[in-house]
């Protein structure tokens, strides 16, 4: 499988751009994902970077702790000590290296025994377009993307638990999310089921060895806050979460944001709610999971570039995104899958925090290089 245009293409889950050796030009959605968010009023030391590393720029702050403050000479005095040359939430003495991330991602890749086999999914990708055409909103594909999916996959415990979560959200931002007892129980069920898998056991073993978590329960509790904790993406308090954005999808300012999951796409396409338009990137893998960057209409709203793993298990995606958020929050996270390089970019959200200054995962994107 290959990119369909003779260019170096970086595909992000939800965004894409053509890499120019001089100056890459991002699509508008990248700017939207990185839009400034008001700094939480939980920070008690505005002249310190304590709890503020990698926060969004806020012109009202007297000094700054974002990734570019050194370029502008406006970092807080303790930036270098608290934020500089550190990876993830650890100190440099126990930082997770690039080599460790690549080795661990390969182990997770091999451990994904719940992934689809080649015969489980038949895709009809049809027409490939150039990156310059992704904004045109033209339907180049008269037929659905998925010709066939072996739905026996969905009876597996992690798939079933994952699917139960998808309809627990209001897709329009600006409307607060409220969960009943059953929906909260479904979150716990999903976490419990994925923790039984070799994929998540591999991830926990690595992070435990890295002194990130002292027990599996601490790890699970953190995952629940990280992915299901609510934050404010619009004007309404608690209208979004990492899980909702990345896996279920949202609509903000008349555009689809998030929605980076093949299972969700297939189920919505089957119901007639998703109209597949085209694709502009097909990953290098010759088995599942693969990556496809596509354009589609979701019940009246357009997705300019929505890249997603295809054929992966829910725990596989959950593990890779979590690994990168823990090890490289707000940074590019270089991985390796089946010998092919892949990176994931996560973003944190500053409107609220959890646990010792760590921030909710706001979004995670897959970046594939050819």
TrEMBL record:
EC number per UniProt: 4.6.1.-
All copies of domain EndoU, residue ranges: 97-370
SUPFAM superfamilies linked: EndoU-like, Somatomedin B domain
UniProt keyword annotations, A-Z: Disulfide bond, Endonuclease, Hydrolase, Lyase, Manganese, Metal-binding, Nuclease, Repeat, RNA-binding, Secreted, Signal
A GO cellular-component term linked to this record: extracellular region
InterPro entries: ENDOU, EndoU-like, EndoU_C, SMB_chordata, Somatomedin_B-like_dom_sf, Somatomedin_B_dom
SMART domains linked: SO
Protein location: Secreted
Main location: secreted
Record-annotated SMB domain positions: 45-87
CDD domains assigned: XendoU
Lineage top rank: taxon: Eukaryota
Signal peptide span: 1-18
Swiss-Prot/TrEMBL catalytic activity: ribonucleotidyl-uridine-RNA = a 5'-end dephospho-uridine-RNA + a 3'-end 2',3'-cyclophospho-ribonucleotide-RNA
GO BP term, pick one: immune response
Cofactor section: Mn(2+)
One example GO MF annotation: RNA endonuclease activity
Protein family: Belongs to the ENDOU family.
Description of how the protein assembles with itself and partners: Monomer.
Identification of the protein by name: Uridylate-specific endoribonuclease
